[in-house]
Every structure is written in C-alpha cells, then in structure tokens.
C-alpha cells in the first residue's frame, strides 16, 4: 500500500511510522519545512520525500493531511486535486466543520485522532501513538463507502478505534472535552505563576493535581491558535458555562455552605464515574453482516447512525458484489448489548442484517 | 522509634508503612472507624491498634494526625494533651491556618505532604507514597527546634522533601496550586457530562487532555468539603481571578483576534516553563553549619527564612552542645547558588555559619 503524508510533525510522523511498521506501507511525505522533511526521512518514517503536495499524493491509495487547522481547506483541496479517483484523502485536524464544509469531495473523510504528546515535532513521533486512541471520522452523505471502509480498516491497523461522528457534533463535543481543558490549563499556569511571583518570586513545589491539570498548558501556538479560533463559538459558550458553574461554587464557599459544597462535589464524583464507565464499555466482539446498496453515503449513514447511538464499531469490512451494485458490510461491535442495538438500528435503516 | 498514627486512611496508612519499612519504627494507630483500624493492622501498617488517641500517643516519640481538616484542631489537641513532653505532634492536613492557630504548643508542627492518589482508604496505602514529594512544614516562633529537627529528619527518611513555610502563605499558595485545580476538575467533568447528555446520552471517548485535567475530580467529599471551606476566602478570590482570565480569552475568541490568542497562549507556555524550571532546580548538595542558641523558634526562624527565599533544605541535623545552651545545625542544600544564598541569609540572621 502507498500512503502519502502531507505535513510531518508529531502526528503526521507517527501516522507514517505506524503505517510502515504495522501495515507494511510505502510512505511518501511532503512538508513545507525542508528540515521537518529531512528529519522524517532520517528517523525512517518516510521512504521518500516529495517536493510538492501533488508529487506526494500521485499514486497514493491514501493521503493523510496533518497541517495546522487553518491551512487544512487549502492543503486538503490541493491533495484532492492531485489524488487519484480511488485515493482516500483524510486529515487529522482538531476541528472539523470548516474543512468538511470546504472539501465536499466523495474521496474526502475528515478525521481526528484523540492522541498527542507534550512534545511537538517529528523527532517525537512514535509508531504506537494511536494505540487504543479514539480516532473520529466525519463522513458525509457524499462520502464513498469503499474509501471510508479502506480508511476505517487502515486506522484500525494503526491501533486506533475509529468512530464516526458528524462534524458539527464533533466540534461541539471537542470544545468541552479538549479545547476547554486547554484553556483552563493555560489559565491555571498563568494564575499560579502570577500568584507565586507576588509571593516574592518564591516558586515552591506544586503537587500532582497541579501538574496533571496543567500538562497541556501552553501547547504550540502554531497549532492551537487555529484550533481555538476555528471553534470559537462553541468554546466561548463553554467558557460562559464554566463561569456560571464557578460562580455557583464561589457563592457556596463565601456562604460557608458545607451541604452545598458536599453535594456539588458528590455530583462531580458521579459525573466522573459516568464518563469513566462510558469509556470502559466493551466486552466480547460480535459480528453483524448487512447488505447495502453500493452508493455514496450509505456506509457514512450507517456509521453515523451507530455512532450517534453510542455504538462503537471495533472494525468493519466491505465485500462488494461482482457487479458493484451492492455489497455486504461486516461490522464488529464490542459487547452483546451494543451489538443488539446496532442490529436493530441497521434494520431500521432498511438494510437486511444478521448476526454472523 | 515509636510512632503513633491517628487516622489510618490513605495518608496515615502510608506514613505508617513508610515509617516501618524505612525507619524501622514501631507503629501504634488509632482510628474512629474500627474497620479502618483492622484493615491497617491486616496490611501490616501497624504493630498495634489503640482504643483511644491517648493510648496511641502514650510513649510515642512522634505522632502523625491524619484526619479530615475540620477535625484537626480537636484531634491534634487531644494528641498534645496525652503526648509526652518530648513527643513531636504533626498533622497532614491540606490547609494549615486553622490548626496552627488552634494548637500553639511547642511540640506541634503543622505538616502537609503533597502526595495522594486517586483512591482513598488504607487498603491503597503505599510505603513509597512520599518518594520525592514536597512535605510542607509550618513551624512557628513557639516550635521546639529539637522536635522540628526530629520531624524533618523523619520525613526525609520517609522519602519526602520537607520545606518550611508559614501557615498563611501555605494556604494562599495551595488555594491556587491545589484547591483551584480540584474545583476546575469538578466543573469540567460536570460540564462534560451535562453536554454529552444533551447530545443524546452519547458519551464518546475523551482524549488525554480531558483525562489529565479531571483526574482529581470528585475527590472524597469527607476530605474535600473541609478543605474547601477551611480555605474559602483565598479560594473564592482565586475563582474571581480565573473568571477574569476566562473573560479576557473569551473576548479575544469572540473578536476572532488571532494575535491576542497566540500571545495569551505563548504567555501560558512561558509561565509553565518557569514553573517547571523552578521544580527542577537542584544540583549537587552543599553542607552548611551554623551555630544557634538553643531556644524555641530558632530552627523555625531559620527554616522559614530559607523557605521564603526559595531555598530548599534537602536534609538537616541538629547537634546540641553538652549544656544544651546552644547547638550546631547542619543544613544540606542542593545547588551551589542556593547554598550561597542560604549562607548569606543565615549570616544575616546573626548566626555564625560556614560551608562544611
């Protein structure tokens, strides 16, 4: 398999390493920084460097665009222009609405791996970066089912758990579970640095809770300015919600209201448990087989419907009929109850479906 | 050495295990919960269980009080009442003003180890919990130098780095670096749970930034309600500061002001670097020897003065003269520059001091 990576930083480099190591793929890369490209070649993430986006994606069966969010519409557009008809083009950006709206091509599937590290740059790239990580995919009604399935299997091969979601929902959720934590981490380090400076430049040790809460503070501005701005409306709304919640706690503190503080803290404990349990859901894997017409959007519809219902597709495979008029899609679902729900949902979409 | 532990939860149990394993001490414990006491005996943290605070501290050379912050003044008071004249009594509470004000006894030194775990209860106690952890001590002008030194050496023996600080400064700093992160973690999990419920009970995977930011969310209400309330004024003030900072970012987001967002993020990165560098300060250890009069408060004065200047005392030892009228205190300081500063500060306090 030939894979192109456009933008070889931490994520692009890790995609390349994982694809080489685990899929046995041949990797071609491009980066607007010659130094980054050389570094990617030096660490063995790429088999060859290209001198343009077009040269990188020529002959590729899949192209991963891993550039800052603000540059995505242009760079994905350039990749689509040069890519073959059966090349799936995806990106790894942290917000999805803008790029999905700009790139309405059946070969494009927006993507976003929930993985990263404290350190940017290809020299920190790792082939195991995506092990067990959720990798959001944002197919649309335009998306080719064949290409979506290829990408899904590829990501599964990289060690990730692909999960379909629509771009709008993705950005709303990520505002809360990723962009907001980054904002709070920034606020917390700056507040601590400021307070400690006020205490006479004395910077004492901080505890584990502070280190955990601020691990992502001050992440690369090159990457994060774009992310914050591309998702500014949901993020600004989340900041309002946080200010509201902080004001409630603050009022209880000022009133010395132990009962309210304890109830508030217990509610947070319960919320955390719910979130953790949702993460840990799983169990034995069941296989479903559904017959679907071979037209763009079908696989996306199916994946989105299951995604909306909280059903995680562990793996999928598409078996087209000889005349390509229809196909069978196999879905592997973890847990008996989710598998049952998935079967009902697929049936409701009008596709014949059975437990394999 | 005979050590008493009053309150055998995660921290009390870990003190006991570490003291047995590393100091070869004999441990007696008391807990108002018989189940906790049995569990502490079962895991081998205690040599014997006592049926009262008084029985536990009788004959002890050191007593650690590890009960919720709200109960500290009473329990420390009871321990001091029963303890021998040369028994050092300390606590491990997360706020220090209230207990230090309530217990003005020369045998009492307030303490607070910056260590913990996601899990409460003695069954999670570990002898290595304090390895490398800062352990704040809040001596006052009343504090016995002999007993302070004993405690300092003991904590060093448990693997911790003791650091002197006055109770007021401790609580102000901890409001920012510990209690505020806990509040933000609570707010974040509840906001995420709420938002995800609004998205149709679909609870997708969250990324590493969310998990890190919310690790401490919903910590035990039994412990934390007391902590929040005992430090409510500094904490409420910190919440004001956070709301102010959030409002600034929010305005820049709404204005689409990339320059301000990038500058704000860069400032957070610089603040984080400063904080990390302060943590990592260190180097080779230098020994200073100072001659000090043998009266209460001298060691505390010295430790607080160095603490205020950001000098960390890696270890200390006190060698009293035969007539106990004066003594030599040895201080080990990491780093040539801090050692130089420490020497100047000790000299300025009027004590003869030399590099050993």
| Distance between the ends of chain A | 29 Å
Q: What's the CATH superfamily of the largest domain in chain A, by name?
A: NAD(P)-binding Rossmann-like Domain
* CATH class type of the largest domain in chain A: Alpha Beta
The CATH architecture name of the largest domain in chain A reads: 3-Layer(aba) Sandwich
Number of alpha- plus pi-helical segments of chain A? 13
Q: Which oligomeric state applies?
A: homodimer
Name the helicity range of chain A.
Answer: 40-55%
Task: Report on the biggest sheet of chain A.
Answer: 8 strands, mixed
Q: Round the Cα radius of gyration of chain A to an integer and report it.
A: 22 Å
Largest interface: A-B, 95 and 94 residues
Low-confidence stretches of chain A: none
- Indicate the mean pLDDT of chain A: 89
* Topology, number of strands of chain A: 12
Strand percentage of chain A lies at 15-25%
The CATH topology of the largest domain in chain A turns out to be Rossmann fold
Give the strand line-up of the largest sheet of chain A: 3-2-1-4-5-6-7-8
What is the ordering of alpha helices and beta strands of chain A?
EHEHEHEHEHEEHEHHHHHEHEEHE
Give the overall shape of chain A: globular
